[in-house]
Amino acid sequence: EPEVTQTPSHQVTQMGQEVILRCVPISNHLYFYWYRQILGQKVEFLVSFYNNEISEKSEIFDDQFSVERPDGSNFTLKIRSTKLEDSAMYFCASSEVGTGVQPQHFGDGTRLSIL
Amino acid sequence: AQSVTQLDSHVSVSEGTPVLLRCNYSSSYSPSLFWYVQHPNKGLQLLLKYTSAATLVKGINGFEAEFKKSETSFHLTKPSAHMSDAAEYFCVVTPSGGYQKVTFGTGTKLQVIP
C-alpha cells in the first residue's frame, strides 16, 4: 500500500539554525499538509498546500515557517531561526482530490529536537 | 468553527473485553469525522471515517463507530480488545465538502491488560 514517507526520522538542531523537514506524499495525491505534535499535547494543524500554493494556515504558521514543493515528489517544511519551543514531532500528510472529503494519510513523523 | 472533545485521556480494558472510546464534536457545518490510531513512535493510521453516508461505520481491525447527530457524538467501539490495540486514538473532525482543515481531539491512550 502506498504511504507517505518522511525524512529524517529524528533531527537535532542548535537553536537559531534553520531546518528543513522532508516529505514524499503518496504519488497521486494533490493536497499536502503539515502538522506538529508537541510532546504530551494534541496534534495541531500548521498548513495545507494545493496547486503549488498555501491553501490554509494556522496562527502557528508564522513567518518563521515556509513550505515548498521543489519537484514533482517532495514537499518540504522549512523552519528558520529555530527556537526551543519548536521541538516537536512534525507530521506530513497527503490526500486525494475526489468527491466529498478524502481522508488524510500520514507519515511516521520527524522528531525535531532543538538544543 | 469546529472542535472535538475526547472525554477520556486514558482508558484501560482487559484483553477480550469491549472497548469504548468517547468523542463529542461541535461543528458549524455538516461534519466529516475520522478516527486515527497512533502506535508508539509511529505515524497516524486511519481507522475509519464518516462522511454523511451510513451512520454506523466499520473500520479496520474490528473497530466501528456510530455517528449520532442528536448527541453530537462519534464514539469508537470494538467488541473484544486485543493486546495489539494498545495505542493512542484520535478523533478528528472536518467540514464536509471539498478541501478540509482538520481539528484533532486531545487523544485517548488505550491500555490493554492481559
Key phrases:
heterodimer; A: 115 residues; 7-stranded mixed beta sheet; 4-stranded antiparallel beta sheet; globular; B: 114 residues; 6-stranded mixed beta sheet
Walk me through the structure.
The complex is a heterodimer of chains A (115) and B (114). Chain A is mainly beta and 115 residues long. Chain A is built from no helices and 11 strands. Chain A has strands spanning 5-7, 10-13, 19-24, 31-37, 43-50, 53-57, 65-68, 75-79, 88-95, 105-106, 110-114. In chain A, strands 2, 4, 5, 6, 9, 10 and 11 form a 7-stranded mixed beta sheet that branches. In chain A, strands 1-3-8-7 form a 4-stranded antiparallel beta sheet, with no helix packed on it. Chain A is globular, with a radius of gyration of 14 Å. Chain B is mainly beta. Chain B has strands at residues 2-6, 10-14, 19-21, 23-27, 31-38, 44-50, 56-58, 64-68, 73-78, 87-95, 103-104, 108-113. The model of chain B has no long low-confidence stretch (mean pLDDT 90). The A-B interface holds A 4, 6, 31, 35, 41-45, 48, 50, 55-56, 91, 93, 100-101, 103-109 and B 32, 34, 36, 41-46, 49, 51-52, 90, 94-107.
Shape verdict of chain A: globular
| DSSP strand count of chain A | 11
Largest inter-chain interface? Answer: A-B, 24 and 27 residues
Q: Termini separation of chain A (Å)?
A: 37 Å
So how many helices of chain A? 0
H-E string of chain A: EEEEEEEEEEE
Number of β-strand runs of chain B:
12
Taking Cα atoms only, what radius of gyration of chain A do you get, to the nearest Å?
A: 14 Å
Shape of chain B: globular
| Residue share in helix of chain B | under 10%
* Secondary-structure element pattern of chain B, one letter each: EEEEEEEEEEEE
Structural class of chain B: mainly beta
The gyration radius over C-alpha positions of chain B equals: 13 Å
Mean pLDDT of chain B: 90
The SS-based structural class of chain A is mainly beta
* End-to-end separation of chain B: 41 Å
Main sheet overview of chain A: 7 strands, mixed
